[in-house]
Amino acid sequence: MRRLYFGTDGIRGTANRFPITAEVALRVGMAAGRQFTRGKHRHRVVIGKDTRLSGYMLEAAMTAGFLAVGMDVTLLGPMPTPAVAMLTQSLRADLGVMLSASHNFYQDNGIKLFGPDGYKLSDGIELEIEARMENGLDTDLVVPAQIGRARRLDDALGRYIEFVKSSFPRGLRLNGLKIVVDCANGAAYKVAPVVLWELEAQVIPVGVVPDGLNINRGCGSTRPDFISEQVVAHGADLGIALDGDADRVIMVDADGHVIDGDQMMAAIADHWHDSGRLTGGGIVATVMSNLGLERHLKSRGLKLVRSAVGDRYVVDAMRANGMNFGGEQSGHLVLSDFGTTGDGIIAALQVLALMVASERPLAEICRRFTPMPQVLRNVRFNGRSPLEDAGVKATIESFSRQLGDKGRVLIRQSGTEPLIRVMVEGEDESDVSTAAQSLADAIASAVHHGSQQ
After folding, report:
1. Backbone angle region of 152, left / alpha / beta, with phi > 0 → left and psi within -120 to 50 → alpha
2. What pLDDT score does 389 carry?
3. Please, what is the average pLDDT of the chain?
4. CATH code, domain with 81
5. Active site (annotated) includes residue 438
6. pLDDT tens digit string along 313-359?
7. Are residues 21 and 91 in the same domain?
8. Has residue 172 been placed in a domain?
9. Residue 345 near residue 249 (C-beta atoms within 8 A)
10. DSSP string of 372-420?
11. Which of the following is catalytic: 102, 167, 307, 330?
12. 450: confidence class by pLDDT, cuts 50, 70, 90
């Protein structure tokens, strides 16, 4: 069935343009509220958001929708996405909502929904919510005496801080470490520096002055050059960069070298395997993760299960394979011993714990394998996907044959933006670069010809 609103990570788009409008948010609130009204107890939904200006509009509209169908609303204010997942469970809520467009700029926003178990909703439930939105909601309105109530949870920040700190091994502390933490002017601008400081690190916070318009702008996990500069300038031991909703993280060593999700996964997987904590005989990573990671895990007797891109699909594969660890090259790391979704702060703490316990610098801890050359290209398009073009299909097939078992070609359409993402990986960097550019050019040409028709 064709999806009208939901994509790979909830509903996302430009704020105040369909589907990220107050009207749609109202209807999502009403439909999701009815979807999760089960039994005769007083139903509750928790709503968190990042620091985007449009969050005020969406929060108010969704609150009105939930209240109209009889759900009580607990407002968390600016909080990381994993905090919403955790508090949905902790508060025994029937539903959780996070208003964020993750690593995108302020112009975009999104709606992510969590079930009472703290997991993101399945495709099937999202389609049922869409059906409710399209089939009339007036009959779902409750009588005046049953309209819901809204309140703010004053101690939401403290609850999440204590939860995150509890993931750090007892007896270990970060004293002696000088850490730059970049909060991307986003949802973790309060909690991340506090967590690190209370664990006794010397903390240099940056990206902690949100104004509604500067989230992810020139900072955060998608702009690692910024934190690299900050780490070197401050003579810090390492840097931690989060994205706008703090569900992903990248790290930087003392020399300003970037450590991506693949290297962090290798370090944590090795440590958990050695300590007997890793379950399922391996980890889950997406089709984007480097072949070097897969080969490293194989050398340790561990398997790598690949999933589609998106932490929701990583979680699905983890649950299906009985694994308690998985993630993405971009820094979405899911540690199910602690939570149900990606948590950038908790993931960083696991690496820091390994550093402290081994008394080794980050550069040594997180250089577990030599990545194979991997080149990424993005091609923007409008209208029909250029991947349907016969010439593009032939070009993809040709380069796939040329690389054979010495590399990979992965072409996919983004689930959150109108982009075709091109990834080529192989043993020869020159061949990989040539192939990636040729594929991107073929796709761009198809886009150009399609726009003239």
Report:
1. beta
2. 87
3. 95
4. 3.40.120.10
5. no
6. 999 999 999 999 999 999 999 999 999 999 999 999 999 999 999 99
7. yes
8. yes
9. yes
10. PPEEEEEEE--SS-GGG-HHHHHHHHHHHHHHGGGEEEEEEE-SSSSEE
11. 102
12. low
Cα separation, 74 vs 44, in Å, equals 7
Q: Hey, what are 145's tokens?
A: 């005496």
> Per the confidence metrics, is the pTM higher than 0.85?
yes
Using the predicted structure, report yes or no on whether residue 1 has a pLDDT greater than 70. no
Of 308, 337, 365, the domain-final residue: 365
| Least confident segment among 28-42, 323-337, 383-397 | 383-397
Closest CA to 407 of 373, 368, 439: 373
The label of the residue with tokens 């993405």 reads 328
In which domain, by residue range, is 321 found?
Answer: 259-345+355-365
Dihedral of CA 123/124/126/131: which sign? positive
Is 407 contained in some domain?
A: yes
Angle at 285 between CA 281 and CA 290, to 5 degrees: 110
Residue 226's contacts (CB-CB under 8 Å, 6 or more residues apart) are 182, 206, 207, 218, 219, 220, 241
Query: pLDDT at position 415, please?
Result: 72
In a domain, 5, yes or no: no
What's the start-to-end Cα distance of the chain, in Å?
A: 28
Over residues 83-136, the pLDDT tens digits come to 999 999 999 999 999 999 999 999 999 999 999 999 999 999 999 999 999 988
What is the token pair recorded at 199?
């664990």
Q: Are 408 and 426 in contact (CB under 8 A)?
A: yes
Q: Return the structure tokens found at 219.
A: 């900072």
Residue carrying the six token digits 């409710």: 132
